[in-house]
Structures are given as C-alpha cells and as structure tokens.
Amino acid sequence: MKIKSFLELVALVLIWSGSWIAIKWGLTEIPPYSLAFFRFFIACPVIIAITYYLEGKNSLKINKKEIIPFSMLGLLGVTLVQGIQVYALNFTSAINSSILINFNVPFIAILALIFLREPLSKKTAFGIFVSFIGAIVIVINGSISGFQKINIGDILIVFTAMFWSIYSIVGKKIMEEKTPLSMTSFTFLFGTIFLFPIAFFESRFSFIRNITKLGIGSILYLSLLCSVFAYICWNRSMKCEKASNVAMFLYFVPVVTAIFAWLLLGEVITVFTIIGGALVILGVYFAER
C-alpha cells in the first residue's frame, strides 16, 4: 500500500471514529434532527462544488426520471440513516453505536442475494450469524434479563445499518449511470431537503441563539470532515488500492471510537462490549470474504 493511501486511511479512521464523539457533544446543545440537518446543509454545497470542479457541470445534470431514485437515496442515506442515528445517540453510547453500525455489511450481503442475485457463501452466512450473536451480547450486556430492558438506541442503530444497506443496493444500480461524486451530491441535496421540515418543526432552530463554540465545532466537524473530506479520502483509496485492503481499515473504527469515548466522554468499556464487539467485527470480516 502506498504511503499516501495509508496516511489518508489513518486520517479517515480517526475522523469517522471521532464522529460519534462529535454527535454526543453536539447533542448537548442541538436537537438531533437539527444537528443532522445542519451537518448536510453545510456539506451539500461543498460536495456539489467539488463535483463541479472535478467532473464539470454535466455531472450535476439530472432528468425527470432520476428525481424519484435520487429522492429515495436522499431519504434512505441521509434523512433516515443520519437523522435516526443522531437521535439514537440520545439513548445509547458512542461505543455501542460504532460497533452495531457494522451490521450494514451482513445486511448488504443478504439484500444483494435477494435483489442482485449475488451468491451468499458459507463464510458470509457464518459471518452474519457470528455478527448477530455479537450484537445480542452488546445489546443485553451479557445478561439474559437484559432482554427486558433493551436499549432503544441500540435497536435504532441496527435499523440505520439496515437503511444504509438498502441505500447501498439502490445506489449500486444508480452508479451504473452516475459517478460516485455525482450520486453523493444529489443524495445530500435531496436528503437535506427532506430533513429540513423535520428539523424545523423539532425546534424551529431556536437553539441558534444559545449555541456555543462546542455546537458549532460539532456541526463543522461532521459536515466538512466526516461528510466531505473523509468521503474523498475513501474514494481516492478505493481507486488506488485493493478494495479488501481498504475495507480492513474500517475494523479499527470501533476500537478507536471506544478509546475516544472512554477518554473524552467517560463511557465504560465492559467485558461484554469487548466480547460482543469482537464477534461483530469477526463476523463482518467473514461476511466480506
């Protein structure tokens, strides 16, 4: 692997790991859907400008037939995934969220089998099963009685992984006609439009009067670093390196998130979090083989 790609992927892991911390901090001042809205309200024009600069105005053209598919992508990939994800962090930890979001990999494998007729190997099926067991260990925190007090935040994070999987399958088909940057631009645009009424009626943006540097910093971190810079790093690495080598770096995100959450948020890392997290990551590894 080239040194440049390695450094970009290390930066990506640090940025995406920090996103859970930034959301937690942002939620101390900003309602969840408003935080999600302003994240993409800022990121959207930036990614559109980058797309225009790198690919020209033709990449940003859209016809009537594409409005519904891109609306679906925006609704799934931004409005539902990001909106619910931020809301879920009101109830669960950054550590649990960073682990459970990896459920998108086995979900994608299952949906690809159903809708794209992509074969499901024995290793993939085994990986899905192992991840499922790991998720249960995390959600109930190692106690059978935990089923009686399941954290709604953990369940919502698993749902966002499912929505992201649907987004990925739909997006795979659309990318046959559009570039990744173009698709992301329209996804951000429609997703931001759908988030606006939810965010407005949630708070009417009254929090703006009392927002501090912490809230502003959280929004800028999530929009410019997590939604724009990290995405560009990911695409550059995917273009220059083997996809499997690049994907391996994602396994470090929950580990780094756990360290950040322990240091900056005071979250507790239990033995069941470690065991469950290891099972989820191991399952994801097998599912990708």
TrEMBL record:
<feature type="domain" description="EamA">
    <location>
        <begin position="9"/>
        <end position="139"/>
    </location>
</feature>
<feature type="transmembrane region" description="Helical">
    <location>
        <begin position="150"/>
        <end position="169"/>
    </location>
</feature>
<feature type="transmembrane region" description="Helical">
    <location>
        <begin position="67"/>
        <end position="88"/>
    </location>
</feature>
<keyword id="KW-0812">Transmembrane</keyword>
<feature type="transmembrane region" description="Helical">
    <location>
        <begin position="7"/>
        <end position="27"/>
    </location>
</feature>
<dbReference type="InterPro" id="IPR037185">
    <property type="entry name" value="EmrE-like"/>
</dbReference>
<feature type="domain" description="EamA">
    <location>
        <begin position="152"/>
        <end position="286"/>
    </location>
</feature>
<dbReference type="Pfam" id="PF00892">
    <property type="entry name" value="EamA"/>
</dbReference>
<dbReference type="GO" id="GO:0005886">
    <property type="term" value="C:plasma membrane"/>
</dbReference>
<dbReference type="InterPro" id="IPR000620">
    <property type="entry name" value="EamA_dom"/>
</dbReference>
<dbReference type="InterPro" id="IPR050638">
    <property type="entry name" value="AA-Vitamin_Transporters"/>
</dbReference>
<keyword id="KW-1003">Cell membrane</keyword>
<feature type="transmembrane region" description="Helical">
    <location>
        <begin position="33"/>
        <end position="55"/>
    </location>
</feature>
<keyword id="KW-0472">Membrane</keyword>
<feature type="transmembrane region" description="Helical">
    <location>
        <begin position="94"/>
        <end position="116"/>
    </location>
</feature>
<feature type="transmembrane region" description="Helical">
    <location>
        <begin position="125"/>
        <end position="144"/>
    </location>
</feature>
<feature type="transmembrane region" description="Helical">
    <location>
        <begin position="181"/>
        <end position="201"/>
    </location>
</feature>
<feature type="transmembrane region" description="Helical">
    <location>
        <begin position="269"/>
        <end position="287"/>
    </location>
</feature>
<keyword id="KW-1133">Transmembrane helix</keyword>
<feature type="transmembrane region" description="Helical">
    <location>
        <begin position="213"/>
        <end position="234"/>
    </location>
</feature>
<protein>
    <submittedName>
        <fullName>Putative transporter in sor 3'region</fullName>
    </submittedName>
</protein>
<feature type="transmembrane region" description="Helical">
    <location>
        <begin position="246"/>
        <end position="263"/>
    </location>
</feature>
